[in-house]
């Protein structure tokens, strides 16, 4: 596997600057494209799974995190509070408290549940400068987060559906998990004290994992402070593991924020809160994708999807026309003309681009293009219109295959 820090610089995906600060990378245009494509995939998958998206602020009053329990259980990982007009505000260490408050802002009937609230939002962690680096250890994190508010009866199905979303996303992204982990509390005061709540939540997640047919391991001391969780672990080239995706069952925060819904009996009931993240932090996910694919991203994620290569200056008008058609169709294309070197040199320079569209005199004359695929395959010349249509169909369906033969008949 590759080192995402080195490749990220080489491919101009992201960088850091001491003036902005350690652990605060910025995204360059090509990196921003990958990130946006990934975020669009996640939002699309969430919409299809019945999630509603919200936005909430990255700051909150200290009191908010005192209620959620972050202040007492997680403070050493939080940025110090800022004094502001007699109040203290902090950069949020998680999105959960905001979503609990959003839930609480309206009355809910049992008929509205499960209520699934999602946000790709910023959160902050006061990591020590010694451990910071690349996209994997950062102080500003964009988290793909969601909270499902549901009845106790709905927990198993919602957790199962969340786990299925993760498995599906990994297929599309080409990610293979290192292992699934049931993360349980360990000794020490890091965890909220409520034995019955922990037992119930752990039993629910155990059942979900057992029914999923996935192999998993139990790990003590890896739970969130408010509840146990299913962690999906990934490994880098050196075998170092990190958690990318999670599904958590939480009875604690609904109680802390006094959340309720009206049941069929007309009485007030406490919902359960499922925290789930499909791709975890955008930073860690992109770092892993860079290392996994060595910069040769699946075509739907690639910063440039089509490079157009006119053999000589005479074919430049046709090359510009093809790039424009691609762009109008929503594809990311650019022309690499003869001024950038021989055809061979330009093909080598574009080796990470999924589709290399060569136009010589023969192709130009009849509005054809000769496609070369990143894996070395060379296709027979085909009409420009058909090439754009077929590339676009493969890209928009987020297929892993670079090409498929036209359907028979
Ligand atoms: Zn949460």
End-to-end Cα distance: 42 Å
Query: What bound compounds does this protein have?
Result: zinc ion
Q: What would the principal axes of the Cα set say about the shape? A: elongated
**Overall average pLDDT:** 94
Return the domain count.
Answer: 2
What CATH architecture of the largest domain do you see?
2-Layer Sandwich
Q: In which range does the helix fraction lie?
A: 25-40%
- What is the CA-based Rg, rounded? 25 Å
Query: Superfamily at the CATH H level of the largest domain?
Result: Bira Bifunctional Protein, Domain 2
CATH fold-level assignment of the largest domain: BirA Bifunctional Protein, domain 2
Give a short account of the largest sheet.
8 strands, mixed
Which percent band covers the strand fraction?
A: 15-25%
CATH class of the largest domain equals: Alpha Beta
Low-pLDDT parts are: none
For this structure, the quaternary state is single chain
Structural class: alpha+beta
What's the SSE blueprint?
Layout: H1 4-10, E1 14-15, E2 26-27, H2 29-48, E3 52-53, E4 59-61, H3 62-68, H4 70-73, E5 82-84, E6 87-91, H5 96-104, E7 115-124, E8 140-150, H6 155-173, E9 179-184, H7 195-212, E10 216-220, E11 229-235, E12 241-250, H8 252-256, E13 261-262, E14 268-269, E15 272-277, H9 282-293, E16 306-310, H10 316-328, E17 333-335, H11 343-349, E18 355-359, H12 361-365, E19 368-373, E20 382-383, H13 384-396
Parallel strand pairs: 3-7, 9-10, 16-17, 16-18
Antiparallel strand pairs: 1-2, 4-6, 5-6, 7-8, 8-15, 9-11, 11-12, 12-15, 13-14, 18-19, 19-20
Zinc ion binds at residues 94-96, 145, 147, 275.
Protein name: Threonine--tRNA ligase
Family: Belongs to the class-II aminoacyl-tRNA synthetase family.
Enzyme class: ligase
């Amino acid at each position: 596997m590759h080192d995402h820090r080195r490749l990220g610089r080489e491919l101009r995906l992201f960088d850091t600057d001491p003036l902005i600060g350690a652990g605060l990378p910025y995204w360059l245009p090509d990196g921003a494209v990958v990130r946006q494509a990934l975020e669009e995939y996640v939002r699309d998958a969430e919409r299809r799974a019945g999630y509603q998206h919200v936005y909430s602020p990255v700051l909150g009053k200290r009191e908010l995190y005192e209620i959620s329990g972050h202040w007492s259980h997680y403070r050493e990982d939080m940025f110090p509070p800022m004094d502001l007009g007699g109040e203290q505000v902090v950069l949020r260490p998680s999105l959960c408290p905001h979503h609990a408050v959003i839930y609480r802002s309206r009355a809910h009937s049992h008929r509205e549940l499960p209520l699934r609230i999602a946000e790709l939002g910023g959160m902050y962690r006061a990591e020590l400068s010694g451990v910071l680096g690349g996209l994997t250890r950062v102080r500003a994190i964009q988290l793909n987060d969601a909270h499902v508010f549901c009845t106790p009866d709905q927990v198993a199905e919602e957790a199962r559906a969340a786990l299925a979303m993760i498995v599906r996303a990994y297929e599309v992204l080409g990610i293979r998990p290192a292992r699934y982990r049931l993360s349980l509390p360990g000794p020490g005061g890091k965890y909220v004290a409520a034995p019955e709540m922990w037992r119930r939540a752990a039993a629910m997640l155990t059942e979900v994992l057992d029914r999923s047919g996935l192999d998993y391991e139990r790990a003590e001391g890896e739970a969130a402070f408010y509840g146990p969780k299913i962690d999906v672990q990934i490994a880098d080239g050196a075998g170092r593991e990190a958690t990318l995706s999670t599904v958590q069952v939480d009875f604690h925060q609904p109680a802390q924020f006094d959340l309720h819904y009206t049941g069929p009996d007309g009485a007030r009931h406490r919902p359960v809160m499922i925290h789930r993240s499909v791709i975890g932090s955008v930073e860690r996910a992109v770092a892993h994708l860079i290392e996994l694919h060595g910069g040769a991203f699946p075509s739907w994620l690639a910063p440039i999807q089509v490079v157009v290569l006119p053999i000589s200056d005479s074919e430049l008008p046709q090359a510009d026309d093809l790039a424009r058609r691609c762009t109008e169709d929503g594809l990311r294309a650019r022309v690499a003309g003869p001024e950038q070197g021989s055809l061979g040199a330009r093909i080598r320079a574009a080796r990470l681009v999924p589709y290399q569209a060569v136009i010589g005199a023969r192709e130009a004359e009849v509005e054809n293009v000769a496609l070369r695929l990143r894996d070395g395959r060379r296709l027979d010349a085909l009409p420009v219109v058909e090439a754009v249509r077929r590339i676009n169909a493969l890209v928009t369906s987020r297929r892993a295959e670079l090409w498929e033969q036209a359907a028979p008949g």
